[in-house]
């Protein structure tokens, strides 16, 4: 399914609108297929949530040809997407409202009323109540809200939860330092940039270029010959000037799109020079 989406939304077919088209296909076809009827499942465990998050993480990384180790929350922040738990909780809350506002003889409502009086934490209603507490939603009073009021409230509470969790993740992970102060929303450049260029930009912002220890490697800097711990090193390395390369620390400190694009170009040039050096040394050994 991912392959088909990439084929339809390829740069060859759509040009610079390919990313926007790919994300639209993902939201309108792939996500509904993945989450189909998951809102009615009960007794979700932590391992279930982790498994479904891995499905989305894998799909997004395949869409943009990103390494498997790309930080999931960094990718969500850049794309302005909800994690899978938030998507499913949203669907469950909308379903709960639909049932609560329905006729008393509706089978679904009779089941919910029965579950309310059970002394178990494994039924559907009890889990929805737990999720209501987690997201600070007044589940017990759901029937008092109109459909539009409830949808608006649920969306705002879920979005607040996502943003808070994202802030924690960005503070904890060094790879997300460039996103530290970025607003959690789909970045505007995604609407007019090809998938290929977006992939390069994301790799820069999430520190996913194959440089030194950044991807588990151990290559030394081609400028100062010291061990490289990631993108930050080559941006600040003064010895690279000797081979005609000069970084700018403002690219990281002021992470505007223009600076990110300059940094991406610089990194790609560094990788090319490093690979040329590796190939030359390999030929000399032969």
Task: Characterise this structure.
This protein is mainly α. It folds into two domains: 2-179, no CATH class; 209-285, no CATH class. Helix content is 59%, strand content 0%. The protein contains 13 helices and no strands. It has helices spanning 2-8, 11-14, 18-34, 46-63, 72-79, 84-100, 107-116, 124-134, 147-172, 195-205, 231-236, 250-253, 257-285. Helix 1 (2-8) runs antiparallel to helix 3 and helix 6 (84-100) packs antiparallel against helix 9 (147-172). The protein is elongated. It starts with a helix and ends with a helix.
Give a quick account of the main beta sheet: strands, pairing sense, barrel closure.
Answer: none
Number of domains: 2
- How large is the count of helical segments? 13
Low-confidence stretches: none
Instruction: Give me the secondary-structure category.
Output: mainly alpha
Straight-line N-to-C gap: 45 Å
- How many strand units? 0
Question: Beta-sheet strand percentage?
Answer: under 5%
The gyration radius over C-alpha positions equals: 24 Å
List the helices and strands and how they pair.
Blueprint: H1 2-8, H2 11-14, H3 18-34, H4 46-63, H5 72-79, H6 84-100, H7 107-116, H8 124-134, H9 147-172, H10 195-205, H11 231-236, H12 250-253, H13 257-285
Helix pairs in contact: 1-3, 6-9, 10-13
């Amino acid at each position: 399914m991912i392959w088909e989406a990439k084929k339809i939304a390829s740069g060859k077919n759509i040009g610079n609108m390919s990313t926007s088209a790919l994300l639209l296909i993902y939201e309108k076809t792939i996500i509904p297929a993945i989450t189909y009827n998951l809102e009615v499942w009960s007794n979700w465990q932590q391992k279930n949530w982790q498994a479904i998050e891995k499905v989305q993480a894998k799909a997004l990384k395949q869409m943009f040809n990103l390494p498997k180790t790309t930080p999931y929350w960094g990718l969500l922040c850049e794309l302005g997407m909800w994690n899978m738990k938030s998507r499913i909780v949203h669907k469950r809350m909308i379903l709960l409202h639909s049932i609560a506002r329905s006729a008393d003889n509706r089978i679904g409502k009779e089941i919910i009323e029965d579950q309310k009086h059970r002394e178990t934490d494994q039924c559907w209603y009890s889990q929805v109540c737990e999720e209501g507490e987690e997201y600070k939603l007044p589940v017990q009073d759901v029937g008092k809200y109109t459909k539009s009021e409830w949808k608006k409230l649920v969306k705002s509470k879920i979005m607040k939860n996502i943003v808070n969790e994202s802030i924690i993740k960005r503070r904890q992970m060094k790879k997300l330092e460039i996103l530290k102060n970025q607003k959690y929303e789909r970045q505007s450049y995604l609407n007019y940039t090809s998938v290929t260029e977006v992939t390069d930009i994301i790799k820069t912002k999430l520190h996913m270029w194959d440089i030194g220890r950044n991807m588990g490697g151990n290559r030394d800097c081609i400028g100062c010959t010291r061990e490289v711990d990631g993108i930050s090193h080559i941006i600040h390395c003064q010895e690279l000037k000797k081979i005609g390369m000069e970084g700018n620390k403002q690219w990281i400190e002021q992470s505007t799109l223009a600076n990110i694009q300059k940094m991406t170009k610089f990194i790609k040039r560094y990788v090319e020079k490093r690979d040329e050096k590796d190939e030359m040394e390999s030929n000399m050994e032969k």
